[in-house]
Write a sequence for this structure.
């Protein structure tokens, strides 16, 4: 197996003549050390949802406070934006994870699970590129990638690192 650089520009679906040159990089926040394992599935989810920023966030189930960023990949701004839209994430989740909430051009939120009093979501927002609902295949791919993130989060105990 060889280590190769992943050229992210091939995934961006932009024509150089029509739009500004695509960014082949992103601004990470909280993606250091072992947390870097989240980068590829989160980036692929941003691409599939046609968003501009992806985050893994948690919210305390005992309050209606704002979501807290655990890690962020931002393709639109450097440094990465850490504030997450309060309305993008449900206050509670009734079903079993994963549950995908498609907000159209505003993005996607996927319920990853609960650990203690914290409810965890993967959130993709920004870009305003998507004009229709996600296809069934895209939904399946996003749920698969969210499962990768949930596995890292809960099986490798990253969720327990949060103070």
């Amino acid at each position: 197996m060889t280590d190769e650089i992943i050229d992210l520009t091939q995934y961006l679906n932009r024509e150089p003549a029509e739009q500004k040159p695509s960014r082949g990089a992103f601004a990470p926040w909280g993606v250091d050390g072992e947390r870097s394992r989240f980068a590829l599935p989160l980036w692929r989810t941003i691409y599939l949802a046609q968003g501009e920023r992806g985050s893994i966030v948690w919210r305390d189930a005992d309050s209606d406070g704002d979501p807290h960023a655990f890690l962020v990949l931002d393709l639109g701004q450097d440094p990465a934006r850490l504030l997450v839209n309060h309305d993008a994430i449900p206050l509670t989740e009734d079903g079993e994870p994963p549950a995908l909430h498609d907000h159209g051009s505003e993005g996607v939120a996927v319920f990853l699970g609960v650990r203690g009093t914290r409810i965890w979501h993967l959130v993709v927002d920004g870009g305003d590129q998507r004009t229709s609902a996600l296809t069934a295949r895209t939904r399946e791919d996003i749920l698969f990638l969210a499962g990768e993130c949930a596995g890292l989060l809960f099986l490798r105990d990253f969720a327990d690192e949060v103070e």
